Amino acid sequence: MYTSGRFYHQGILPLPPSEGLSVKINTYDDVPEPKFDPKIHLNLKKPEYIRLFPNFEKAEKTPRVESNKGSKFAFSSSFQVRSNLKGL
Fold first, then answer.
1. 75 lies in a domain?
2. What is the C-alpha to C-alpha distance for residues 5 and 11, in angstroms, rounded to an integer?
C-alpha cells in the first residue's frame, strides 16, 4: 500500500479505567518523583558528525529532505541528550 505523505495527528490515548485492573496506575501525586522539566533535565548537544547514504560520507549536519525518497541520514556519532544531574 502506498502511504507516502499520508499522516494523521492523533491525541494522547487516555489511561484505561482503574476499576477492575490488576495493577495500580500511579500518577506523579502517588510517587516521590520530580516532574520532568526540560530546562533542568535536558542538555541536548549536537553530534560531532553524521554519515549520509549511499556512501556513508561524513557531514556536519543532515541535509533537508526535499523529495519523497526520504532522508539521506544514515547514522551519527553519539551525543548527549539528558543532563548530568545525580539520580537521573
1. yes
2. 19
In which domain, by residue range, is 85 found? 37-88
This prediction's pTM: 0.52
Other CB atoms closer than 10 Å to residue 50's CB: what's the count? Answer: 21
**Residue pointed to by grid coordinates 549511499:** 54
What DSSP string runs through 48-68?
S-EEETTTTEEESSPPP--ST
User: Quick check: helix, strand or coil at residue 28?
Assistant: helix
Q: What's the pLDDT tens digit per position in 50-71?
A: 999 999 999 988 888 888 888 8
For cell 547514504, the residue is 53
